[in-house]
Amino acid sequence: MLFNESTLRKLNQLTLVARRVRAGVLKGERRSTRRGASVEFADYRNYTPGDDLRRLDWNAFARLDRPFLKLMEEEEDLAVYLLIDISTSMDWGEGPTHKLTYALQLAAALAAMSLGSGDQCSVILLQNGKVSSRMGPLRGAHQLSRLLVFLENQSKTFQSGGTTELDRVLREYSLAIGRPGVAFLLSDLFAPGGFQSGVNALLGRGFELILLHLLSPIELDPPLAGDLRLVDVETGKSEEITIDGGMRELYQRRMELWQAEFQQDCRKRGAEYIPVNTATPWDKLVLYNMRQAGVVK
Question: How far apart are CA 50 and CA 54, in angstroms?
Fold first, then answer.
């Protein structure tokens, strides 16, 4: 089980936050920019011949001797996309800090909030510069069990292999998708080719992007010392280094700078960047950290 019933009840009390509400295809729990016929009042406009007289505000007409039409908010659904990097570098960490396991649990939580709010939810797995598998779009809380089975199967059947080519896959996916929405990218961002142009492509299509940068505690503070030969798990390239106290401090400074550059870059582009240490319990990340960041409420 990715999470228990107690956690699910907590998740059902939360909803994902969208900065811009787009025109959806079905009524949901979010206010739209369009005016419809729900019970929530939005605004007035002048009456024009042919308008429905049932929407005329007769009290305003009696006071002002001018006919005004009441406009009501229409509630619509949101399209949510959970983009999960399943390249070889995500197969790292032990137990609950394993990056891919953590990403799948986090995606399950986001999906539970999305489906519980009546949103449209899709899960997309990214590997080797392409979409390797997907589930959705799904809608409705009754679809959660189906999506959880899909995610659990991924954790059981995952085979290590493939590189991180985020730029290419994000660009191609942004062109293939028909309906923009809120996209969560769950990745360690170990992408030699970068990811900035892929992010720009998503934002250019009207997506809101939340980038969840997942790193294991071993990557943030590696317990290594002495003469070592490090091997890149994706490319096979190796590097011989000597690690002492000074080298560890330099590594940590560069790691902090690396994350700070990502945060600044995302802020410039209008995306949300959230660094994640997988030693942080994923439910705490959702229920507290992401709420403080304004991603969920």
Answer: 12
